[in-house]
Design brief:
29% of the residues lie in helices and 18% in strands. The chain is of the alpha/beta class. Helix 11 (385-394) crosses helix 20 (548-562) and helix 23 (625-632) packs across helix 25. It is globular. It starts with 13 loop residues before the first strand and ends in a 13-residue tail after the last strand.
Length: 949
């Protein structure tokens, strides 16, 4: 794990004390237990666990301290200079007594077997100290409580509970979910969930931190009750959100049986419900395992997407099996034919933010050098394209200035347009931890989400009024003399224009527009400007608007005028969505940029890549995701009409706005090749379907939202004839005329990485493949082998041409489509905790699908009463483009006049309704705002479900 180099004056001081009559050195503030471990002295411990606050309640770790009458718990006693500590016979006798008494209450058959016994860490320590239970103690065993298996993922076996409180601390202090507590007294004391509810009926969010903390199996994943012996453990990275949690797969018989959090720099052992329990999608019987070719005469009917069973076995209605040679020859051959017949603009490619950096790099290289144009894009166009546009323009870099856990150093944390507890749960824990330490969280969002419980102030602004609200904050800072004049003088351009622009945006003038009282706006602005460190984190609620770039420009201006950037606990952090959307963008999987955001219109960059790839390159930007759909439907006379596509790991038939239009476009292609792990909605419209590998079946790197390049290792073999994505890309390349020859293991992944490192030398030249194998995670920019990486950037200058931030004033631009009498509600779309984007992975994960099996729409009680519906009733939502029918869920955090719909459910696809209007700069669609009508009732589409593992 990469760690920054500390200067000598920041290194921890050491003190000397005696341990078993030997003089030893320890760090100031370190516990006796930790110091003893570092010097090879093992002291038993059960309530203590690295990462949790020491509690000292089990008394298994007691030691004798010279001059003190009672034994001391070593886990929470600090080693101080001159202390004399003995693991004496007296201490060992006490340790053994504690272990024996705890063992005497254990059930006859345990839940967490290992080589040392059947009660996990308790059996392990008992074996190491040669402890056995006397029959007279066993006869006094407590009355054993019944087990609780009400939760889809976890079993509660309180007969194995030793009341060490590790689960309580993990839940309340690490994850800050406040579900697990400790109730009653004496012999009746026990661990409880909420108000002594069953775990499955409690407010548990299934992060599994308690399971990872439990030493005995009292809390266990249902998939791993019993033997803990596995064939192997493989270190990797979580395949879901952009936080980039490091984890370990536990593998038995070529199947992942459980997942543990690893001490990575982004998560420090923590995981969420998806990372810990969402792994078995890879073992779904619906995996694609053989190449498929569309049967002759079977039409590409978009209407079939909603009618066909989403079971892989059902593909035989539309496709036939093929050999790899036949499928590759047809897939690549037709693409080559279209290119040679209609020109290089006739083809386009969508790569994946779910794959590796190496796959993203090679995919964009294939499109540029093999297809001959820059018509390559991926889902960044649908999430943070406007943020990227504003950041490149303003600060010269599209990545974050500070890492998420830098909120530890912030006095104020401004979270806007993001629901981190659902979308970035582990990142949310760092924010909640900061709030418990006294930091002020400001939640700015049209919806009051779970983060509101921890917020100092909540700014529930009216949807679509971001610019009005942020400009009011900037106005206050300038008007009240709170601007950082020195920072502005030395490091900011265009300040006077910004100052003049916000003169008309006083809080008093903006309050009626954005719905936030003027005094509250002023209070937040003052707190932001005067904080020692203030950090802005935002999500797609900021970016997915026609004014998304302007929203981000305003945030850049806010941190600039206050000097809240370029130092710890301050700065700009767009929380990236997919696990590798940052890395895929860095690697050039976007139509206007080569790797490392070098514009295709920049002659020097263009010439460099022509020479590097030894191929003539197009010097015009390609079309974006939504623009490509329009170009597919262009008239045949259009020389830029797109006729063929290669789509790897993307699902635009679910993720694009105005799905009826997008599906019609995909069905109109003359040739479509889809490479994926499931028969997605997009794959149903393909001519050739190529079965690929899931994340745990490959080796490669990904880059998280914190600018950390991280290595994942292959844990299991792919099913059937599924092939590595990197191999498939190379096979397509060869068949369209490219002479590629990447050698070595895993389809040459190390060789591809090293080529990519040369193309991105200005960011990752110091991160070699060998270094990643050693360290797992390295932060960029990192320019030499000795460089530890730079967690905080812009300390002295920005990445712009003159080293200064470039401010761009922004004015109010209304949404493309406003509510009216026919469509009086506003539709807001987004993700939910258990399901990811289009649901192709998470809805095939048994635990995740069991927790959230059906599509729901969230509304406040006032609107539900107006519609005369109750929670669980069926409603129909319709826009000018499409409609869905689903069940309603009460959520009073959703504002009146709005409805929130997650977009992971094919049977109620939210994007049937969304608007394809684009931000003119980032070319991102307006997912977060369109007008809809809602009425009670309707016919629910059949949900056939995915999770049949």
């Amino acid at each position: 794990m990469n760690a920054p180099i500390q200067s000598a004056d920041l290194m921890p001081q050491t003190v000397e004390f005696k341990l078993n009559d030997q003089r030893v050195q320890t760090y100031e503030g370190e516990s006796i237990l930790k110091a003893a471990q570092r010097h090879g002295v093992d002291i038993p411990h059960l309530c203590y666990k690295d990462g949790l606050r020491a509690d000292g309640n089990c008394r298994a770790c007691v030691v004798e301290i010279k001059g003190e009458r009672t034994l001391a718990p070593s886990c929470c006693r600090t080693a101080t200079a001159g202390l004399e500590v003995l693991v004496s016979d007296r201490a060992i006798k006490s340790q053994k007594m504690v272990l024996e008494m705890l063992l005497s209450d254990m059930p006859d058959v345990g839940y967490k077997w290992n080589d040392e016994g059947q009660h996990g860490e308790l059996s392990d320590w008992a074996s190491r100290l040669n402890v056995s239970v006397r029959p007279e103690l066993r006869a006094l065993r407590r009355e054993q409580p019944a087990c609780d298996v009400s939760h889809p993922a976890m079993a509660v076996n309180l007969d194995a509970c030793i009341q060490c409180n590790r689960c309580v601390r993990a839940c309340r202090e690490e994850q800050v979910n406040d579900v697990i507590g400790y109730a009653h007294r004496g012999a009746h004391s026990q661990i409880v969930f909420d108000l002594n509810d069953e775990m499955g009926n409690s407010s548990c969010v299934a992060c599994g931190e308690c399971v990872q903390a439990c030493p005995t199996g009292a809390l266990m994943p249902k998939t791993q009750i019993g033997s803990q012996v596995v064939d192997k453990q493989v270190d990797s990275v979580c395949p879901f959100c952009g936080v980039g949690c490091l984890l370990t797969y536990n593998v038995k018989d070529n199947k992942i049986v459980s997942v543990d959090g690893r001490d990575g720099p982004a998560n420090h052992n923590r995981l969420c419900v998806k990372g810990r329990f969402g792994f078995d999608y890879i073992h779904s019987p619906q995996r694609l395992t053989v190449p498929l070719i569309r049967k002759v005469g079977v039409p590409k009917d978009p209407a079939l997407i909603g009618q066909l069973n989403h079971d892989a076995a059902d593909w035989s209605q539309v496709f036939r099996e093929a050999t790899w040679e036949e499928a590759l020859a047809l897939g690549a051959g037709q693409l080559k034919h279209l290119r040679d017949t209609h020109g290089k603009k006739a083809l386009a490619g969508f790569g994946s933010a779910k794959g590796t950096n190496e796959e993203a790099y090679l995919f964009q290289k294939l499109v540029r050098t093999g297809f001959g144009s820059n018509n390559v894009d991926h889902c960044t166009r649908l999430c943070h394209a406007s943020s990227v546009a504003a950041l490149l323009e303003g600060v010269g870099s599209a990545a974050v200035s500070n890492q998420v856990n830098d909120v530890e150093h912030a006095e104020l944390i401004f979270v806007i347009g993001s629901n981190p507890t659902s979308n970035h749960p582990v990142a949310a824990t760092w924010m909640k931890n900061a709030a418990k330490r006294g930091a002020k969280i400001v939640l700015a969002d049209p919806r009051v989400t779970d983060m509101g419980k921890h917020a100092w102030r909540t700014l529930q602004f009216k949807p679509d009024t971001d610019v009005a609200m942020i400009n009011a904050l900037i106005h206050t800072v300038i008007e009240e003399g709170l601007a950082d004049e020195a920072f502005i003088r030395d490091r900011v351009n265009n300040y006077e224009a910004l100052k003049a622009n916000v003169q008309g945006y006083s809080p008093e003038a903006m309050a009626p527009i954005c719905g936030i009282p003027a005094e509250t706006l002023r209070e937040v602005a003052r707190a932001f400007a005067t904080a020692k460190g203030a950090m802005v984190l935002w999500g797609m609620g900021v970016s997915q608007h026609v004014h998304g770039t302007d929203n981000a420009r305003c945030l850049i201006a806010l941190v600039s005028v206050t000097g809240q950037i370029g130092k710890p606990g301050s700065g700009l952090h767009p929380l990236r969505g997919q696990n590798n959307v940052q890395g895929a963008s860095d690697a050039g999987l976007i139509p206007m940029m080569y790797p490392n955001y070098q514009r295709v219109t920049n002659k020097a960059a263009h010439d460099w890549f022509e020479k590097f790839w030894d191929t003539p390159l197009d010097d015009k930007p390609g079309y974006t995701v939504v623009e490509i759909m329009g170009k597919i439907l262009a008239d045949d006379s259009d020389p830029h009409k797109v006729r063929g596509m290669y789509i790897m790991g993307e699902n635009p038939a679910m993720s694009d706005p105005d799905l009826n239009h997008a599906r019609h476009a995909l069905a109109s292609l003359e040739h479509l090749v889809v490479q994926d792990i499931f028969m997605t909605e997009t794959a149903w419209l393909a001519d050739v379907v190529l079965p690929a590998t899931a994340w745990p079946e490959k080796t490669g790197t990904v880059s998280n939202t914190d600018r950390m390049v991280q290595l994942g290792q292959q844990a299991i073999d792919p099913p059937g004839q599924a092939k590595p994505d990197l191999w498939i890309i190379q096979q397509i390349a060869k068949r369209v005329g490219l002479n590629w020859n990447y050698a070595g293991q895993d389809s040459g992944v190390a060789e591809v990485y090293e080529e990519m490192r040369q193309a991105m030398h200005a960011a990752i030249s110091g991160i070699t493949w060998e270094r990643l194998q050693r360290e797992s995670s390295v932060t960029y920019p990192c320019l030499t082998a000795e460089d530890p990486g730079e967690p905080t950037v812009f300390k002295e200058h920005f990445a712009t041409d003159d080293g200064r931030v470039h401010l761009v004033p922004a004015d109010i631009i209304p949404a493309n489509e406003r509510p009216d009498n026919d469509f009086p509600f506003v539709l807001i779309t987004g993700r939910q905790l258990e399901h990811w984007h289009t649901g192709s992975m998470t809805r095939r994960a048994t635990v995740l699908d069991a927790i959230e099996p059906m599509a729901t729409a969230s509304m406040c009680v006032a609107d539900m009463q107006r519609l005369k519906v109750e929670a669980g009733d069926v409603i129909t939502i319709a826009s000018r483009r499409g409609q869905v029918t689903l069940r309603v869920r009460r959520d009073d955090g959703t504002p009146q006049g709005a409805v929130f719909v997650p977009f992971a459910y094919y049977e109620a696809a939210a994007n049937l309704m969304t608007n394809a209007a684009l931000d003119p700069f980032g070319k991102i669609p307006e997912f977060k705002y369109c007008a809809v009508a809602i009425h009670a009732g309707g016919s629910l589409a059949e949900s056939r479900g995915f999770a049949t593992c």
